[in-house]
Design a protein that fits this description.
This is Putative circularly permuted ATP-grasp superfamily protein. InterPro entries: ATP-dep_Glu-Cys_Ligase-2 (IPR051680), CP_ATPgrasp_2 (IPR025841), UCP005522 (IPR016450). This protein has 496 residues and is an alpha+beta fold. Among the domains are: 95 residues, 3-Layer(aba) Sandwich (Rossmann fold); 64 residues, Dna Ligase, domain 1 (2-Layer Sandwich), CATH 3.30.1490.270. It has 16 helices and 24 strands. Strands 3-22-21-18-17 form a five-stranded mixed beta sheet. The chain has a four-stranded antiparallel beta sheet with strand order 5-4-19-20. Helix 3 crosses helix 14. The longest helix has 25 residues. The radius of gyration is 23 Å and the shape is globular. About 4% of the residues have low confidence.
């Protein structure tokens, strides 16, 4: 599948000479701005990101362990009406995910009623028996979710995967907007763009809202990071600083009598809410991996006692599992009583004999993924793979079919992107972020658009050579206006 057959979100199917009517102004901006000016702005953005330290780690590559994620100036744009429809589906899905997590670690009604095969959950490595019976404070397990979406046409959106463990990328959403406000202010005069800079405040409010019972009045919130060697450390420090809370490492915390304390130069301070960016396996050496040097001994005991809130909750990885994903339409129906408003991509579960046979017969046509994979690793994109790659993947698939799912190779939408030869269509996906405290999930009016910078590539992950774009959500013509601080000045985000 090549870019020629894909729907372009700005140009439609007509190409640069016949852009979609609602984006004529953006097409004119791309056409009329000199190439040298675009190049100057891109170099300025890269220099700024490098100065700020906005990098990600690529493990296993000695020559380049820290990289800048490439940033593209052409924004991805969502109209107000399509954003409203997307938001309804996203809220429904996250509510179902929270209900599912509470259920499988509690009563397990969905298993008792035969909606899911029990072995798919209870035998899954992502299911943490250590969490069974724990009800998270206020019944919220997935406080921060990133739901990855793909688009194939003007009104065709699909959920590609769910991220309820530690969805990353929100710092890029915020820094990309800062860069666009500074470098392309004319676009914010042309379009009424919803602001995203309130995200840290929304996240802090969410943290405070789920403080343990009796600690609601003035809870102490911290962000727990594994340390500066972690690939997302920039994001950890960025968010803690933006929220005005302490960024702590495991050595900064201790547990005494099932209460978590932060050690400061002024003495101990009780901690009530922890946004933890340490994986389950390493969180508590007394419960999970005993060799973990990144954990806080006893933190799970404090959590079980209800004395601390952990965001996101341990055990959430089961909701990210791609085999569980294939049942999400049934999960949504079971917990909400409604049909899913956002459809899944068609999925074959290789653990099922008929599906497994189909996948083996069509490997050159399908995208095959590890059920617990991430970052673009452990996957096969059949149409672009060599015969040798397909043969090697077939061996792994035959050895452990239960570890894989397969999906059709979708004609992912494209957005014009700067390439060596000038503007060219490149495939994109999208990760909007939702925050859930006490109340319904809130959808941030923006998100992380990832772009595959290689012509024809469908792999958008930064670790696989992808880049990012700003994501504009246009406001309805309601006479409202929003402003956002950026680049040392306040920019009106739209006409009026």
């Amino acid at each position: 599948m090549g870019t020629r057959t894909a729907f372009d979100e700005i140009w439609g199917h007509g190409g640069p000479e016949q852009p979609r009517e609602e984006f004529a102004a953006l097409a004119a901006w791309m056409r009329d701005t000199p190439a040298a000016e675009f190049e100057r702005r891109l170099q300025t953005a890269e220099a700024t990101f490098r100065q700020l330290g906005i990098t990600f780690a690529v493990y296993g590559e000695e020559d380049s362990s820290e990289r800048i994620i490439p940033f593209d100036l052409v924004p991805r744009i969502f109209m107000a009406d399509e954003w409203a429809r997307l938001s309804e589906g996203l809220v429904q899905r996250v509510e179902a995910i929270n209900a599912f997590l509470n259920d499988i670690y509690g009563e397990r009604r969905i298993l008792d009623e035969g909606v899911l095969p029990p072995e798919l959950v209870l035998g899954n490595p992502q299911f943490r028996t250590e969490v069974a019976g724990i009800r998270p404070p206020h019944g919220v397990a997935a406080h921060i979710c990133g739901i990855d979406l793909v688009r194939t046409g003007p009104d065709e959106f699909f959920v590609l995967e769910d991220n309820a463990r530690t969805p990353s990328g929100v710092s890029y959403m915020l820094e990309n907007r800062e860069a666009m406000l500074r470098l392309c202010p004319e676009l914010f005069r042309e379009f009424r763009v919803a602001a995203v800079d309130s995200y840290p405040d929304l996240l802090h409010d969410t943290m405070r809202s789920v403080a343990p019972q009796g600690r609601e009045s003035n809870p102490v919130c911290v962000l727990l990071t594994p340390g500066h060697f972690n690939s997302a450390y920039y994001e950890h420090s960025f968010l803690a600083d933006s929220m005005g809370i302490e960024l702590v490492e495991p050595a900064d915390l201790l547990v005494d009598d099932d209460i978590v304390w932060m050690q400061t130069i002024a003495g101990r301070v009780r901690v009530d809410v922890i946004y933890r960016r340490v994986d389950d396996d390493f969180l508590d050496p007394l419960v999970f991996r005993p060799d973990s040097m990144l954990g806080v001994p006893g933190i799970m005991s404090a959590y079980r006692a209800g004395n601390v809130t952990l965001m996101n909750a341990p055990g959430n990885g089961i909701a990210d599992d791609k085999a569980i994903y294939s049942y999400m339409p049934e999960i949504v129906r079971f917990y909400t009583g409604e049909e899913a408003k956002l459809p899944n991509v068609e999925t074959w579960r290789c653990r099922e004999p008929d599906s497994f046979k189909y996948v083996l017969d069509h490997l050159d046509e399908l995208v095959v993924k590890l059920v617990d994979g991430s970052g673009g690793y452990g996957m096969l994109v059949g149409p672009t793979a060599t015969k040798e790659e397909i043969a090697r993947f077939r061996e792994a698939l035959v050895a452990e079919p239960h570890r894989y799912i397969a999906q059709p190779t979708l004609a992912l939408s494209t957005v014009p992107t700067f390439a060596d030869q000038g503007l060219a269509p490149r495939h994109v996906d999208f990760r909007p972020f939702l925050l859930t405290g006490r109340g319904r999930p809130q959808v941030v009016p923006g998100g992380l658009t990832r772009v595959a910078l290689k012509a024809g590539s469908l792999v958008v992950n930064s670790s696989q050579g992808g880049g990012t774009k700003d994501s504009f959500v246009l406001m309805a013509d309601s006479g409202q206006s929003q402003s956002q601080s950026g680049g040392g000045q306040t920019q009106s985000q739209g006409r009026g």
